[in-house]
């Protein structure tokens, strides 16, 4: 049985995602979701990944990846993009 989700605008979804992140215990200052797309029913968040000067991941990059994964899990169960 597939769960019904609510349509939501990209802007509203990003506001909620950033609120969830800022209240999460693993939040790092500067973490922000700036875009979201939907792929096969999963919301995929994008934003700052704290790359170094050479474009390589840092220790903070893993934290951001995990936070975006958390947002995808939590918010994909509730919403789908309306636009």
From TrEMBL:
Pfam families: DUF2498 (PF10692). It comes from the Bacteria. InterPro entries: DUF2498, YciN_sf. NCBIfam families: PRK11037.1. This is DUF2498 family protein. It comes from Jejubacter calystegiae. The lineage of its organism: Bacteria, Pseudomonadati, Pseudomonadota, Gammaproteobacteria, Enterobacterales.
């Amino acid at each position: 049985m597939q769960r019904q989700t609510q349509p939501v605008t990209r802007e509203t979804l990003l506001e909620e995602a950033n609120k969830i992140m800022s209240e999460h215990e693993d939040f790092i200052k500067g973490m922000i979701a700036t875009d979201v797309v939907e792929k096969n029913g999963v919301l995929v968040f994008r934003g700052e990944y704290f790359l170094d000067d050479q474009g390589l991941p840092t220790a903070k990059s893993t934290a951001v990846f995990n936070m975006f994964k958390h947002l995808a899990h939590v918010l994909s169960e509730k919403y789908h993009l309306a636009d």
